């Protein structure tokens, strides 16, 4: 979703801003722009529809000088993606420029009031209202830009991260946030500002995360100052950034998604490092151990998540109910937050989010907290809003995920959920030591198994060519593999734009089987489990109706091989770990079909990596 970059210091701002925008491209956007204050104090705003490369072409013959600037990638919410609606927006007099992530909910009331005061509007965005309001407040109160921003924000309802610069001021950026992330990088005589740390990492590892309801005065001649909307000064908490540049580059792969798929053996190692004893007899997740009573006494555990994280949570439900005998519910965060759910003290809410910034999941966390639940987070991005809003949690430690379609985060989330289930089951005494060791050792062996699956890359690439022009797909699985089927379908639709649906295999005959004909590819996960024979029967039912079956089966399987049109053979793992093994070939299949179709795999149309608006 929208991205923010800012710089103030001694270097030329333009190259830093452009490089930062490129780093943020993964978030998804449809226009880009920047504002610079040059050496003469003039404020230059350049913006256009399209990619950052279009903006670079657009600025070729323009004044791009200056040591201070703000830049933005916009993912359209209010108003079409075009040049005028692109950010930065500037005030009536042209003296203030502003970039904004989020939504100003009361913009139309504010706009009417400003129109009555003689302001005119060029764009159809909510953001332009805010910059005009700041100018109006500044002009009527004869105050500083900082005071004007502080006062204007008191009138605003909504979610935002903003950055503001002013004509004639080459030293200072004013930034503020409410429900939308913002991080400030601290260099020597320079500051960097961004909506996530990726544009900052190559300049400094010292960062400050701005909290909700705070305004930052970022002045290159002064120490960083952060105050609340009510003017209470905040303690500056400088954190060390644990991220490297190589994690943000493709490392020889044509797409981040393929790189991230292939990283999974290593990311699982990172995820379990120090958490599972070498012989598999112990699992230590400190956030769970420290709060074990809350989990063990919980009336129930409620997972809240969206998209891929929701699919991972469905596996978490299965794991925890199966191993720990604690009731679990899995909720779409976007529904949960608005449906007046029953949450009681003693409930444990587990928020699952790769980015840690998903607006709906964050709102679900806030709702659950207000109603007295204990909140546990499973996030990837360290220091993200959800990670900070939860009482405790476990990071998945899979490194930055840049491809919009989530891959390594999914396997990391399921791995953490498996470790949570093992930890709780052991504490509760609901798992035998044999089964505990079998699953824990299964996790230790998982990287090698995923390595083997990745050896199928070429075979899956060849297989994908048969299905490039398919118009629909069905994905089936049962038990632990049902969420993996949902996830396989989501991957395909996200990046190839082919319509795909996931179903529990046995549910087919209750309606969806009507869709089956010789034009319908059906991907079935049919790995060994206690309902394998039943899955085989489901495959027969589809075969009998002419469907084209692509089966993910265990190495050496002969039964399904005799029925399916195509088989992808994967190594066998313990039943509860099979969705981790089975999801990887489905990621590759989706990837190669999308590549065959010439899709923009890393930045699929209409999608954003971090969905910071609801
Ligand atoms: C799918 C995908 C999305 C996200 C969803 C939640 O590939 O990327 O469905 O899973 O937007 O995002 P997080 O996990 O960041 O909360």
Main sheet properties: 8 strands, antiparallel
Ends distance:
11 Å
CATH superfamily of the largest domain: Aminohydrolase, N-terminal nucleophile (Ntn) domain
Mean pLDDT metric: 95
What does this structure look like?
This protein is of the alpha/beta class and 614 residues long. It has 3 domains: 3-246, 4-Layer Sandwich (Glutamine Phosphoribosylpyrophosphate, subunit 1, domain 1); 258-451, Glucose-6-phosphate isomerase like protein, domain 1 (Rossmann fold, 3-Layer(aba) Sandwich); 455-599, Rossmann fold (3-Layer(aba) Sandwich), CATH 3.40.50. 36% of the residues lie in helices and 22% in strands. It contains 19 helices and 24 strands. The protein has an 8-stranded antiparallel sheet with strand order 3-2-4-1-10-9-11-14, with helices on one face. The chain has a 6-stranded antiparallel sheet with strand order 5-6-7-8-12-13. Helix 12 (359-370) links the parallel strand 17 (348-353) and strand 18 (374-379). Helix 4 crosses helix 5 (145-153) and helix 7 runs parallel beside helix 14. The longest helix is centred in the last third of the chain and has 22 residues, at 433-454. The N and C termini lie close together (11 Å). The protein binds fructose -6-phosphate (F6R). The site of fructose -6-phosphate (F6R) has 15 residues, from helix 10 and helix 17.
């Amino acid at each position: 979703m929208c991205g923010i970059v800012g710089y103030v210091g001694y270097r030329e701002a333009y190259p830093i801003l452009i490089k930062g925008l490129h780093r943020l491209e993964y978030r998804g956007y449809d226009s880009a722009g920047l504002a610079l204050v040059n050496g003469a104090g003039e404020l230059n705003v350049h913006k256009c529809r399209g990619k950052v490369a279009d903006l670079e072409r657009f600025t070729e013959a323009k004044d791009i000088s200056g040591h201070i600037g703000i830049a933005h990638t916009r993912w359209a919410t209010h108003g079409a993606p075009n040049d005028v609606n692109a950010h930065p927006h500037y005030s009536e007099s042209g003296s203030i420029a502003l970039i904004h992530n989020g939504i100003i909910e009361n913009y139309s009331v504010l706009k009417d009031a400003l129109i009555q005061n003689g302001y005119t509007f060029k764009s159809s965005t909510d953001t332009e209202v805010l910059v005009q309001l700041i100018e109006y407040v500044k002009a009527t109160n004869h105050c500083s830009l900082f005071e004007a921003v502080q006062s204007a924000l008191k009138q605003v309802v909504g979610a935002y991260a903003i950055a503001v610069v002013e004509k004639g001021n080459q030293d200072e950026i004013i930034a503020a946030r409410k429900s939308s992330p913002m991080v400030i990088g601290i260099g020597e005589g320079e500051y960097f500002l961004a909506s996530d740390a990726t544009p900052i990492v190559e300049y400094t590892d010292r960062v400050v995360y701005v909290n909700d309801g705070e305004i930052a005065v970022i002045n290159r001649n002064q120490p960083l100052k952060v105050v609340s909307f009510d003017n209470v000064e905040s303690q500056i908490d400088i954190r060390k950034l644990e991220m490297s540049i190589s994690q943000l580059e493709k490392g020889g792969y044509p797409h981040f998604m393929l790189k991230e798929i292939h990283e999974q053996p290593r990311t699982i190692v990172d995820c379990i490092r120090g958490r599972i004893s070498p012989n598999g007899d112990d699992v230590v997740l400190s956030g769970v151990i420290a709060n074990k009573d809350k989990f063990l006494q919980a009336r129930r555990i409620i997972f809240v998540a969206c998209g891929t994280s929701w699919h991972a949570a469905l596996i978490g439900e299965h794991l925890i109910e199966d191993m720990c005998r604690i009731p679990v519910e899995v909720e779409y965060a976007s529904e949960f937050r608005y449906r007046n759910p029953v949450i009681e003290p003693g409930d444990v809410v587990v928020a699952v989010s790769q980015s840690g910034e998903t607006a709906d999941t964050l709102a679900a966390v806030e709702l659950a907290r207000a109603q007295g639940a204990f909140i546990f987070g499973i996030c990837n991005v360290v220091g993200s809003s959800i990670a900070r809003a939860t009482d405790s949690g476990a990071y998945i430690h899979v490194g930055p995920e840049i491809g919009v379609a989530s891959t390594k985060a999914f396997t990391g989330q399921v791995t953490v959920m498996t470790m949570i289930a093992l930890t709780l089951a052991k504490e509760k005494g609901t798992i035998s030591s044999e089964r505990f060791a079998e699953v824990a050792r299964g996790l230790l062996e998982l990287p090698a198994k995923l390595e083997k699956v990745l050896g199928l890359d070429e075979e899956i690439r060849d297989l994908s060519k048969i299905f490039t022009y398919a118009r629909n797909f069905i994905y089936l699985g049962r038990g632990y593999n049902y969420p993996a089927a949902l996830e396989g379908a989501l991957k395909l639709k996200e990046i190839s734009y082919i319509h795909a649906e996931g179903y529990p295999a046995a549910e087919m005959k209750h309606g969806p089987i009507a869709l089956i004909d010789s034009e319908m590819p059906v991907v079935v996960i049919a790995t060994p489990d206690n309902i394998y024979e039943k899955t085989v029967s489901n495959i027969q039912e589809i075969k009998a109706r002419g469907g084209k079956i692509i089966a993910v089966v265990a190495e050496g399987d002969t039964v399904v091989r005799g029925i399916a049109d195509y088989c992808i053979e994967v190594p066998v793992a313990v039943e509860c770990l099979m969705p981790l093994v089975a999801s990887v070939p489905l990621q590759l299949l989706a990837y190669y079909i999308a590549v065959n179709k010439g899709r923009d795999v890393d930045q699929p149309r209409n999608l954003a990596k971090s969905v910071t608006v609801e």
